[in-house]
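Hey Z.,

So I finally got round to the S-adenosylmethionine thing we talked about over coffee. Here's the setup:
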Amino acid sequence: MTSSDEASTTFDLARYLAAKTTVDDRALNRHVLAELRGLMPAGAPRVLEVGAGLGTMVARLIDWGVVGGGEYVLLDADRQLLEGARRWLCDWAHARGLRSDLLPDGLQVGDLRVRLVHAELGGYLEAAHGARADVLIANAVLDLVDVPAVLPGLLRLLSPSGIYWFTVNYDGESIFAPDHPLDDQVMRAYHRDMDERIRYGRPAGESRTGRHLFHHLRDAGAPALAAGSSDWVVCPAPDGSYPADEAYFLRSILNTIRDALQNRPDRVKSADLAEWLAERGRQLAAGELVYIAHQLDFAGRSPG
Ligand SMILES: C[S@@+](CC[C@H](N)C(=O)[O-])C[C@H]1O[C@@H](n2cnc3c(N)ncnc32)[C@H](O)[C@@H]1O
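And the result:
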């Protein structure tokens, strides 16, 4: 489950994305990651990450030794987040003892030139572009866009020998434990909201993006060479504490569901939603809440 819209969220999106880092670290599928490493071009590739948010993925990929030199473009529709990315990446580099310098359009981290591009993806694909990317990345993003409409144009951003890594694609299953009698009703309504969502004036994703990507990728001429699950699993330690800032992450997930459903009493009665949220909030505060979201990762080659 992803959450992204500047206008409709009632939490700190930058803090949410930073809190999501440790959850994604555990979730990203290592078999698919190994495929990405095997396909990664030698030298100094040009990487384009769409919906890059705060830039936590480029930091992770430097940490994991997947990228080190070349150019890495962070594209996002949220200008504030991109501004936050410059600071966040500088602080991150500083904490690791990596040289970093702020530049007018991004920053330099060691040998990697990070460029920030403020653009809405649909509009970006419709406009003319310069150099194509060797590597295209989208993490927790494709479930926020109309994949059949966007995917062909997205893949055209790749050079003919380019590769893609599309990760953390939500796939229709959120589990909260312990069970609550209203779980099915709340999640059915939330999935319907995902399926009908409009953002930036365009249809914005669907709740079963993960499973549908197998065929969307094949139809776009770029079938996955590797696929696997990247489920988020967030649970408290035996003492009831959550790792890092993951309690905030869970609070943000609950707020996202609240924001999506609070004006839809036709789908979940207000009193039922309030009861469900109150109980989940109490379990979170008591260190009892477990959350699992089913997601899928894919890696493959450009149709070119
Ligand atoms: C759930 S966040 C994920 C951010 C980042 N990839 C991560 O995993 O930390 C989704 C991001 O996609 C961006 N986004 C959503 N729809 C977009 C669109 N149509 N065009 C460009 N960016 C978009 C949002 O602004 C947000 O930063």
